[in-house]
Structures are given as structure tokens and as C-alpha cells.
Amino acid sequence: MISHGSSIKLFAGNSCPALAKAIAAKLKTDLSACRVTKFSDGEVCVNIDETVRGCDVFVIQSTSYPVNDHLMELLIMIDAFRRASAGRITAVIPYFGYARQDRKAQARDPITAKLVADLITSAGADRVLTMDLHAPQLQGFFDIPVDHLFGIPVLAKAMLKDSFLKDRHEDLVVVSPDVGSVARARQMAQRLNVSLAIVDKRRPKANELEVMNIVGDVNGKRCLIVDDIIDTAGTIAQGAKALVELGGATAVYGCCTHPVLSGPAIERLEKSVMEKIFVLNTIERPADRQLDKITEISVASIFASAIESIYADLPLSRLYE
Predict the structure, then answer these.
(1) Among the options 201, 221, 241, 293, which is catalytic?
(2) Which domains does the chain have, with CATH numbers?
């Protein structure tokens, strides 16, 4: 709990105002006064309507769609706080955009995740608080401390209370949709105390996915596909189909930390064999990205606890004890 009159200030951009309000409510405080608008030519305009001199400032902003607008809002807000003599500035980024551009996949590719990390640092952030970076080594892209929260414990806790899983573990298998997500899926399998399977896939060419094999026994089992991001939903939808048609699964569920849900994602999920998809609210979904199959779980509590720990200079490891 953050007491009124303390030197902490919570500010929100336009990307996730509902989550920001929920975090403030968990901390029993209010969001500080700030207006983030645009000039007629599209340039971002930021007005901070209260003093931040010497304060511990937390800027809550996911760099989700429209990614560039929300990123510029974050950078300009950080710069405004730095120039207004804030004591410490923490960029709270529930979803860190550009995280998938973390390496040179082919000649002359940029490493945009590093560029964005440098921009946030140059703008004046002293610390970053985020959740489930696409690759954990992205923490090393920053020259400032990064506090990295995990979405799996939040998802697992919520699903253990859901009817599909409550008291029904014996026929469940956690599935990684590809080799890159095995570590994340293994964490979920350990928390639920169930076995693990992997969808082995290959791409004949860009934007085409061909599932080759199911590694592990899913025949007659219910499957839970675990990933960090659902973007266009092609990977998870085809993986779910393969589990039923090739593996003999009786039911398929899905979960992810970041519901990007771009392009044909909603249509693909609606038509998929998955019965339910659990997502965290690191990204605020507009009305056209809602679906009855999707169950949203709030991360307000864990972010509020993390902010409280950073403010009090306490270790974040206590959040998972």
C-alpha cells in the first residue's frame, strides 16, 4: 500500500489506461495528472499537470499497437519527467514491443530491440519494469536495471481455479507450440505437475507453417498450449489442429502472456479447435479484439507489488515466494 502524500507518482500513457487504473487501485492511490494528446500534424503532445520534482515516478505504458505512437508517448513522457527533475523514473512496460527483433536473422537485418532499449535509456529512464520479454537475454540490451516479471505463475494460479483444470490434472498435457517456447511450457508443466509435449514444426517459406510431428504422448489427453505471444494466431491455431488430428488429443486449450491479436487472429481463434484461451491484460484489447473463447486475467496485482518493492528498495523475488 502506498500512502497519500508520499513521493511516489504513477502516470499512464494511452496504451493501457484500464490496467494503469487497476494498478493504482491496488496501491490505494490515484493516477497522477497528465495529458497525452496529439498536435494536428500527429506529433505527440505531453502535459504534466503536477510537480514531480524529487519524486519516484512510474510511467505505465505498453508499447503495443499502434506501436510507434505508444513508444513515442513513452519516450516523450520520460523526457518530460527528467526535465522536470523527477528523482527516479521507472518505465513500467507490461508488453515490450519490438522484442522479437532481437537478432540478425539474415544479412543486413537491424536489431531493433537494442535500438528501442537505447532510446528508453537515452530518454532518461533509470529502470525498466516489464513482463515476459520474448527472449530473457533482452535484459542485457539495456544499460539500466531491468526488473523482469513472469506471466506463467499468474496464468497457472488463475487456471488452477478454472473449471477446465480444477481437480482434473490426470489427463492434462502442457504443450510447447515450438522448440523456442519449451522452457516456458516446462515452467507451466512443473507448476501444474503434468507432463510436457512439443509441436515440431517447420516453415517451407515465410508466413507458411507446416506441422511435422508431435513430440510426446497426447493421445486421449487434454492439451494446454503455452506461449508468450499470440500475434496472428497462425502458430497456435495450427498447433491445436495438429494435436487433435495427428496426436489424438480430446480437447485443446491455449494461454499466453501478451494477446497481440493482429490481422486475422480473432477469426483464426474463433474457427480453431481450442475451447478456451487464457490471456493476461498486458495489452488492452479493443472491442473488435474480444472473443467469447478468451478469458482475460489481470496482472494489476503483481505489477502493483513490484512497484511497491521497487519504491521500497525490496527484492522482487519475494513476489514468487
Answers:
(1) 201
(2) 8-149+300-320 (3.40.50.2020), 152-297 (3.40.50.2020)
Global pTM reads 0.93
Number of continuous H segments (helices) and E segments (strands) in the chain: 8, 14
Q: Quick one: CA torsion of 100, 292, 200, 178, rounded to 10 degrees?
A: 30
Active site residue 201: yes
The tens-digit pLDDT sequence of the chain (321 residues) is: 555 445 899 999 999 999 999 999 999 999 999 999 999 999 999 999 999 999 999 999 999 999 999 999 999 999 999 999 999 999 999 999 999 999 998 899 999 999 999 999 999 999 999 999 998 889 999 999 999 999 999 999 998 888 777 666 778 999 999 888 899 999 999 999 999 999 987 666 555 556 668 999 999 999 999 999 999 999 899 999 999 998 999 999 999 999 999 999 999 999 999 999 999 999 999 999 999 999 999 999 999 999 999 999 999 988 887
For residues 264-293, one letter each, b for 16 or more C-beta atoms within 10 angstroms of the residue's C-beta and e for the rest, the string is ebbebbeebebebbbbbbbbbbeeebebee
Q: Kindly give, in sequence order, each residue whose CB lies less than 8 Å from that of residue 136, ignoring residues fewer than 6 positions away.
A: 148
Element (H, E) at 182: helix 182-192
DSSP 138: G
CA separation, residue 273 to residues 165, 238, 239, 253, 286 (Å):
18, 9, 10, 9, 24
**Three cell numbers written together for 231:** 500475434
Task: Look up residue 211 and give its amino acid.
Answer: V
Joined grid coordinates for residue 2: 502506498
The CA distances from residue 147 to 25, 61, 101, 132, 306, in Å, are 21, 15, 20, 10, 9
